[in-house]
Write a structure and sequence with these properties.
With about 240 residues, the chain is an alpha/beta fold. The chain is built from 7 helices and 8 strands; from the N terminus they run H-E-H-E-H-E-E-E-H-E-H-E-H-E-H. Helix 2 runs parallel beside helix 7.
């Protein structure tokens, strides 16, 4: 495990439960210093994620919730399947579904990567991550989670999962990133009503998207179905 993940006091809780720490009221709070800090996070983040030429990013609920309990083992299974086929599993490094994906990757003998939240004296990281990188800014962290992945897999989750999902499908819709990257939603019971709302309200009633936009994502129910889509996807050559 990286030395960064061995610091005492690591936390493994949902982001909303992390301690709030005020910004230091000195030169570090100035706009100029923040710009340099952001630049540094981009440089260090790209250097870190560039080591993983074949990766899949997994998202989902971090809470001790019904969604997590139901889908934990499926995410764990997917992590193992990915690891055994040579994919690094990249998550946000936290609990819940992220922990499950990392756990499966670790058990499968693969790279289990956590792109996690950096706190002043510790990191939020689950025990199954074998290499981690902490970020102060959420937006730099989110970019590293998605920049070079060959596929994106979303298990049931809350605001964070929905934010990450809708941003990616918007980038694909607007052709800001490659349109062939699989976006896989695991759990028909959870994602089916969303897809129905997109069809009946967003498309048919309000005409806010095109009919083919719903083809950007695919809904499945099992780790094996998700793995088959990943297996047949073209490689991503971001680096």
């Amino acid at each position: 495990m990286d030395s960064e993940t061995q610091k005492p006091g690591n936390l493994n809780v949902p982001a909303k439960d992390l301690p709030v720490t005020p910004e230091m009221q000195d030169f570090r709070s100035s706009m100029q210093w923040r710009i340099f800090r952001i630049m540094a996070e981009f440089v260090e983040g790209f250097e870190f994620i560039a080591d993983y030429k074949r990766s899949v990013s997994i998202f989902g609920s971090t809470r001790d919730s019904k969604a997590t309990h139901k889908w934990y083992e499926e995410a764990r299974k997917l992590g193992t399947l990915l690891a055994k086929e040579g994919f690094a599993v990249v998550t946000g490094g936290g609990p819940g579904i992220m922990e499950a994906g990392n756990r499966g990757a670790s058990e499968g003998g693969g790279a289990s990567v956590g792109i996690n939240i950096q706190l002043p004296m510790e990191q939020r990281v689950n025990p199954y991550v074998n290499r981690a990188k902490g970020f102060h800014y959420f937006f730099t962290r989110k970019l590293m989670l998605t920049f070079s992945a060959q596929a994106y897999v979303y298990f049931p989750g809350g605001f964070g999962t929905l934010d990450e999902f809708t941003e990616i499908i918007t980038l694909i819709q607007t052709k800001k990133i490659a349109t062939h990257i699989p976006v896989i939603l695991v759990g028909r019971e959870f994602w089916g009503p969303f897809d129905e709302w997109m069809r009946t309200v967003v498309y048919e009633k309000d005409h806010a998207i095109d009919e083919q936009d719903r083809n950007i994502y695919t809904i499945v129910d099992t780790a094996e179905e998700a793995m088959e889509i990943v297996r047949n996807s073209p490689p991503r050559t971001a680096f």
